[in-house]
Design a protein that fits this description.
heterodimer, A: mainly beta, four-stranded mixed beta sheet, globular, disordered N terminus, B: alpha+beta, eight-stranded mixed barrel, five-stranded antiparallel beta sheet, 27 strands, rod-shaped
């Protein structure tokens, strides 16, 4: 099982702002197709995510988690409203956060605080088909790629670590990381996940 | 064809082998067909059985997977178990797995974690199993794994939370026990074997029962595309085989299931049938051989009998074959018997013909000679005499000529019968023609030959009534008595013949005994014959010429050529002695030819008015080449035809006057003169003179000699001369010896004379002188 991120990068030089450089990352799957089911995190030393942003909601709607992938900062409280008429039993066995929301309905308000950075895989003990992901990020530069498989941040220039999470990645924790140096002019690259 | 090359001594063996061979060939073809059908049928049933077993195994294979997956699902869906797996609670996991193992009846159940850790009953398979989930294809839950020589089946169920956080695995060894279980499912005792690849990539049996071979490799390679049954050659014997490939992780071929069924076992149920067919066929061949041999013998035996009979017939034996039934062979046998009888009968007839005369049925000359030989031999030993009577009919030719041959034959038969009746104590034979012979032997009365001969003469002398014709005939008999008159058959018969000749000469109708004098005369005559031949060859003959004086012209008008023979030892031999012998032997023709040529040659040198007269014997005259001969003599000598005068006697007319007259006319047409010699003697008939215009008549010397003394002779000469004159023929008087005769002849008007009075015959070289002298005389 060998998965890596190949940097096929073209760094762009640009007379930029004093502390922030634009970082654009495109993701491609092993077959070369745009990877949409992925979260990119650029970890910059000293930058911490703001936990108070919110609110963060992971709905259970039509026997599915909505959204499928939710990116939250460390310490964020995520509510799990049940919009279905059936009950759900949401759980997570992930190391970042283990929890178990026993059967609850529309009337019940449930929320969980995610205090550890990491990937939290959500399941429903009743509905095997339901699965969701909450990416608990320590860095403020974390986002799910858009429909074109691209994500864009304004990140301070300097050394950083790019971490990509995707269910398609066959590696421990379904994530891969790479150290990069972000020039002040900005950074743009395309990662192709190879099986 | 090979059969044609084979040679059979007997028809029976040939038929037996041919039919049995054909029958055996048919059986062999039937056997081959049956064997092919049996194999095909065995194959079809085994294929059906193997295919069914394969299908059952397929079903079981997937059913097993489903059952185990279901059992595993119960555990892997359990929230507590998932929580234990997620939290890495190994003790809980292991106990859960142990429970699952017991519940599912599978010894080895284990959990593989994403990091490769394996929890549960594990062993050397651990590393292999740890990597298995990663190698499985999407959706694949079932894979065959090979560890060393062992093959296992792994059924994998993921633990979802909701992502895969581990895999529960059932590991089932595909070992001998599993295979035996599979074998028990089949209705037929097939063998199931697990195959794996060896180090070199060849397929081998996991339990070592099948070694690597190309057949097996090919079979496995084609098993994906075809489900057909194949024939696999194994050291243990050929077998029908079916291969089911078992997918490993990633879909690669790691192992395969070989189901086989030995050919011998497949064919075993048919063995009684095959044995039955074989035994039936063998019995059939034996029965066929026996029957065809019997049949062939029933055909062949009569043929062999015919064959043997034909050989016997070939060697001269008289044979018959037994005729059985009425088929073709029986008819052939009947025909053979008839043919054999016919051959024997013809043989008898031929033998009879060889020794008997067909006309009279009497023994013939051959038989006579044999009998005489035997009689003489016995006579010599016993001191007895043998008498031979030779008998010849008198005037038989006249009977034939006047009454025809059928009457002549009837007469000969009658004579034969008469002789056979008269001769009770001897053997009568017909020697040929009208000649018969009688042999008397044993102790006969010395007077018996004479008495018998007289009795025969008396009996045959009486007129006989033959075929309604009264025939008066007679016979002459010559008798010779051996061994005095001849010790061997030829001599005795010859002497009897001589005696017969003597009897004929003595007036016919008599018998004569052989006398030594007769023999001497005959011997002398034979010597004369030999001498004549020699004379003709060595030129002992010469011609003398006697002038013929023409009384009217008073000169020599011609010469008569006369033959002279100067015998080397006997001196001059007279024509009267040798001419009869020459006539008897036919030598006269050759001698006559010589005379004619010689006479013409001499005459050609004479004056033109001088002719040459040549005597022609009746025998010579009748010979076929006579006309040609005269022509050649004239042509060779250059003599004018009218200077040649041919003298014939009346006797030429005795044998058919018409042909003689035709010949005379033709000679006349050539210009040759014809003279009638010796006129007035013998059968002289005036009708000859009327029928042919002779040029000359020669008056016989008997009249001339007495012409002067005897008035009657003179009158005859006068009559002849007048007759000739009236018929415009010349006359010549022969034998004129004195002047009186000449005067009388001249007085009677005779045209020419010939005789000593004028000149003896002279040598050819004296002719010239004589001609001159004649002129002087005339002068």
């Amino acid at each position: 099982m060998h998965c890596r991120i190949l940097p096929s990068l073209a760094a762009l030089c640009c007379p930029a702002a004093a502390y922030a450089a634009p970082v654009t990352i495109d993701l491609r799957g092993p077959d070369g197709a745009v990877l949409t089911d992925a979260v990119v995190m650029v970890e910059v030393p000293g930058a911490r995510a703001d936990a108070l942003r919110g609110p963060f909601v992971m709905e259970q709607k039509a026997i599915a988690f909505q959204p499928h992938v939710l990116v939250v900062p460390v310490g964020a409280s995520v509510s799990f409203p049940n919009r279905d008429t059936v009950r759900h039993h949401v759980y997570s066995f992930s190391k970042a956060k283990k929890f178990d929301l026993k059967l609850y309905g529309r009337e019940d308000q449930r929320s969980i605080v995610f205090g550890t950075a990491g990937i939290v895989m959500l399941g429903c003990n009743i509905h095997d088909s339901m699965s969701g992901v909450i990416v608990v990020s320590a860095t403020p530069y974390a986002a799910k790629v858009n429909g074109a498989g691209r994500v864009t941040f304004d990140v301070p220039a300097g050394s950083a670590t790019v971490r990509v999470w995707s269910p398609s990645i066959r590696a421990a924790g379904n994530s891969l990381s790479q150290s990069i140096t972000i020039p002040s002019a900005g950074f743009a690259t395309t990662y192709t996940i190879r099986r | 064809m090979g059969l044609r090359r084979l040679r059979f001594r007997t028809l029976g063996r040939k038929l037996a082998i041919l039919y049995a061979g054909l029958f055996a060939l048919t059986l062999a073809l039937l056997g081959v067909t049956a064997q092919a059908l049996i194999r095909s049928h065995a194959r079809a049933s085994v294929q059906a059985e193997l295919a069914a077993s394969g299908s059952v195994y397929d079903g079981l294979w997937s059913l097993r997977a489903k059952t185990l997956t279901a059992s595993a699902d119960v555990v892997t869906r359990d929230f507590g178990f998932r929580a234990a797996v997620a939290s890495g609670d190994r003790q809980t996991i292991a106990s859960a797995l142990a429970t699952l193992s017991t519940r599912a009846g599978v010894e080895r159940v284990m959990l593989v974690e994403p990091d490769g850790a394996v929890i549960g009953a594990t062993d050397a398979l651990g590393p292999l199993l740890a990597s298995l989930p990663g190698r499985l294809q999407a959706g694949q839950r079932d894979a065959v794994i090979v560890s060393g020589a062992r093959v296992y089946r792994a059924i994998v169920t993921p633990v979802l939370a909701p992502m895969e956080i581990g895999w529960v695995m059932f590991v089932i060894p595909l070992d001998a026990k599993e295979m035996r279980g599979l074998e028990r499912l089949s209705a037929i005792p097939l063998t199931a074997t697990m195959l794996r690849r060896d180090a070199a990539g060849h397929w081998v049996a996991a339990d070592g029962s099948v070694r690597a071979n190309a057949d097996l490799d090919r079979l496995v390679a084609t098993s994906h595309t075809t489900r057909a049954l194949a024939m696999l050659s194994l050291p243990s014997g050929a077998a029908y085989a079916l291969v089911k490939p078992l997918a490993g992780a990633g879909g690669d071929d790691r192992a395969a299931l070989l189901i086989r069924y030995p050919l011998s076992a497949a064919l075993a149920p048919y063995l009684p049938l095959q044995i039955g067919l074989g035994l039936t066929g063998l019995a059939g061949i034996i029965a066929m051989m026996f029957a065809s041999f019997r049949l062939a013998r029933s055909i062949g035996r009569p043929i062999a009998a015919l064959d043997a009979a034909a050989r016997a017939l070939e060697e001269g034996a008289r044979t018959e074959v037994a005729v059985e039934g009425d088929d073709e062979i029986a008819r052939l046998a009947s025909s053979f018997n008839r043919m054999s009888a016919g051959i024997v009968e013809r043989e008898h007839r031929i033998t009879h013909l060889a020794f008997h005369d067909s006309l009279t049925g009497l023994p013939n000359r051959v038989a006579f000679r044999q009998a005489l030989d035997q009689a003489l031999g016995r006579g010599l030993r016993a001191g007895e005499q043998v008498a031979v009577l030779c008998l010849d009919l008198d005037g038989f030719k006249g009977v034939n000529d006047t009454l025809g041959h059928p009457i002549g034959d009837a007469l000969l038969r009658d004579i034969g019968a008469i002789l056979a009746g008269l001769v009770t104590d001897g053997l009568v034979s017909r020697l040929g023609g009208d000649e018969y012979a009688v042999i008397l032997q044993g102790r006969f009365d010395p007077d018996r030959p004479r008495v018998l001969a007289q009795a025969i003469l008396d009996r045959i002398g009486q007129p006989m009534l033959t075929e309604g014709h009264q025939i008066a005939t007679g016979c002459s008999i010559g008798i010779a008595i051996g061994p005095g008159d001849g010790a061997d058959p030829d001599a005795l018969l010859k002497n009897a013949d001589l005696a017969l000749y003597g009897a004929k000469r003595d007036g016919r109708g008599v018998f004569r005994f052989f006398e030594a004098a007769l023999d001497a005369a005959a011997r002398q005559r034979r010597q004369l014959e030999l001498d004549l031949r020699e004379a003709l060859r060595s030129g002992q003959f010469r011609l003398n010429f006697q002038p013929i004086f023409d009384l009217k012209a008073n000169r020599i008008g011609g010469f008569e050529a006369l033959l002279r023979w100067q015998h080397p030892t006997r001196g001059e031999v007279g024509p009267t002695e040798f001419i009869p012998v020459a006539e008897d032997t036919g030598l006269i023709v050759s001698i006559g030819e010589w005379v004619l040529h010689e006479a013409c040659r001499h005459a050609a040198a004479w004056p033109d008015h001088v002719r040459v007269a040549v005597n022609v014997s009746p025998l010579q005259f009748r010979s076929s080449g006579f006309e040609t001969m005269i022509f050649q003599a004239l042509a060779r000598s250059g003599l004018a035809p009218n200077r040649l005068e041919v003298e014939i006697t009346e006797s030429v007319f005795l044998e058919g006057a018409d042909t003689v007259l035709n010949l005379l006319h033709r000679l006349r047409a050539m210009g040759i003169r014809i003279a009638l010699d010796d006129f007035g003697t013998g059968y002289s008939s005036l009708s000859y003179l009327r029928s042919f215009p002779f040029d000359k008549i020669k008056i016989d010397r008997s009249f001339v000699t007495s012409v002067a003394d005897d008035a009657s002779s003179a009158a005859i000469i006068r009559a002849i001369v007048d007759l000739a004159g009236a018929l415009h023929m010349e006359t010549t008087a022969e034998g004129v010896e004195d002047g009186d005769q000449l005067a009388r002849l001249r007085g009677q008007g005779c045209g020419s004379i010939q005789g000593y009075f004028f000149s003896r015959p002279v040598e050819s070289d004296a002719v010239g002188g004589l001609l001159k002298q004649s002129f002087s005389q005339a002068a």
